[in-house]
Amino acid sequence: MPYTETFIRDQIRAIPDWEIVKVGFSNVEGGIDHADFAPYSTRVTDLVVRSVLGVHPYLNAYKKVLQDAGAMLLHAHFGPGGIEALPLSRAAGLPLLTTFHGADAALSRSRSPWARSRYPRNLSELFRHSAKLIAVSSHIADALLKNGAPAKKIEVLHTGTKIIPLRDSDDRQGIVFVGRLIDIKGPMELLRAMSLTDKEIRHSTPITIVGDGPLRGALETFARDRHLTVKFTGKVDSGLIPALLRSHSVFCGPSLPAKDGTREGFGMVFIEAALQELACVGYASGGVMEAVEHGTTGLLAPEGDIQTLSEYLVRLTRDEEFSANLGRNGRVRAKAMFNLDVQAENLAAIYQEVAN
């Protein structure tokens, strides 16, 4: 799995009472977890065959791995993954669960020809065949319903995150963003919002941008031209993120809708920030409204309202008592609602229900 999918790896490790066998297409260099069986290589020829034929060339081999392990069900992540697992589910005679994490629940609205035709048809077949459709937020559950998923099959189950101790920091200040540097994650919205503040605030408020992506060059140029105090870290190991968050006082993740209209599915990074008692700022968009409770754990501006976003950032960086109170509330809420161990137990209960 890519480094951005630590939430899946952590869920796999937390599920109690079940032995998990990981099957996939290929193991890639730099992945965060390796499959027990992944027959394709990463050569271009294999990638082409894989994109056309999927599991079919190795169907018997996949079946044998599952049979030898005594598998009782298949659990796929993301809509495309569920579609790829359909032939294997049928061939092995195993019930299929599919977890939807975001845009995969609503790609029928995409402008791409493939998504307008093939994906919706395959998604409908996945809805019919899956024993359960797991949505990581109510926002995603609503998208599944709008796309024709049977309500009785949908379960809302937050992925959850590890409840870790607070990391002490003697110097908490500034704003931090963590995520891929792409338009829908909103890093440019953060810089634009800060550029609207007065000169003193721009110069005295450090901003840390954690992550990498195609927008990095544009972000660096914008920060330099607007005289913002910004540090770009590039990719950071997930184990170092809590301490990095704790050294700041505000987390900002102003996610925007994608071109096809899909929105952030949930926003686990807001929960990770709340666990380190950071006040959170963003837009009232998609699943972010479930990750952040406006006025209690953070502040959410109307979607795309850059002026209000700017005002919220100024307030939280200047009103330390208010910001700290939101942060404390955020940790209490995260522990109560998004504990990885509790959510993994709930998933194990779904497994048991489906297997029986």
TrEMBL record:
It holds the Pfam family Glyco_transf_4. One of its GO terms (molecular function) is glycosyltransferase activity. It is an enzyme of class 2 (transferase). It comes from the Bacteria. The lineage of its organism: Bacteria, Bacillati, Actinomycetota, Actinomycetes, Micrococcales. Residues 54-160 form the Glycosyltransferase subfamily 4-like N-terminal domain. Keywords: Glycosyltransferase, Transferase. Its EC number is 2.4.-.-. It comes from Arthrobacter methylotrophus. InterPro entries: Glyco_trans_1, Glyco_trans_4-like_N, Glycosyltransferase_grp1. Residues 170-331 form the Glycosyl transferase family domain. This is Glycosyltransferase.
